[in-house]
Amino acid sequence: MSEDGSDPEFDVLGTLLEGDLEEGEDESEVHQTCRRLIEDVWHKKYEREDIANARNHQWTESAYEAIDIDSSDSTPIGLLEELRGGTDFENNSRKLTELFLQQVNQVPNEIAVLDLLIFGRFSRGNDDFVTIIKTPYIDDAYNINPDAEDILTENEQVIREQTDKSLLYPRHDGVDEAIDDSKVQVFQKRGSSNWANYWYEFIDLEENEYPDELVETTFKERAAEGESDAVFSSYSEFDGTDLDEEFDTDGDLHSGDIAIQFAGERLKISIEKVKTDDRIQLARSDDGEEYYLILKDSDPEFPVGPSGSTNPLFEDISDLPVIQDLF
User: What span, in angstroms and rounded, lies between the C-alpha atoms of 38 and 172?
Assistant: First the structure.
């Protein structure tokens, strides 16, 4: 793909035929790299709600409409289905690459066109899958002649073994092994910090914001409408606001986290707990000189280490200071 300021173009570097990705003594480095990249995409934890870089996206209605490429009557979902079935693999890969470039061209300062797209078809059990993997070009890869024969074997280092972004179709549930062709599994390395819309929009997938992202975007919009940078004018306003009535969102705003910073420590707590859980209280002193975050529990735990070791810090906590003596 082009790295100058002109409209990006792309070259097909090569095609690995069926059977090329099977393990064996004669397997080249590029075969090994592609196989490991596909295995990496397959084993992502797409079903984990606490992992924000691997998600399930549904098709939009426009995914079933014909694309505007070479007078084609193909649809985004139709192209993936044909790739999944092994039909006209190289030509359909070209069409999807053109869709990708059309989308990424609309993103200012986006350098994704400098990367390599890998299209892969594979089987697990009785089911066929297709994946699209975006991986960074290696340094000096632009000096490689894409017209050279056997480019994938003569220049084995053209592929970097690093999954930047990927698509996996159809959705596969690793728990009950169910297949769902109404969804595509999407991976983006940087997760919430840089969930690039173009990567799922180019094949017409719906947005899938996680609660933390929904809170941030929704609250930023409200803050922009006010006279200050704050989302709410006071704690009382926040506490008395019904979030469902105030914000018309399709996602789960209540389970999104906000950050609370006290005594140099930054804690993430869900909005729902801040608003409704009486074990979590924000308070101030009478003179307003000091503020408190009060966490109360009838059975607190003090595990040693960040991994949650079974070794507690204390055996007996009955001699903790009485709170009235502290304040």
Answer: 14
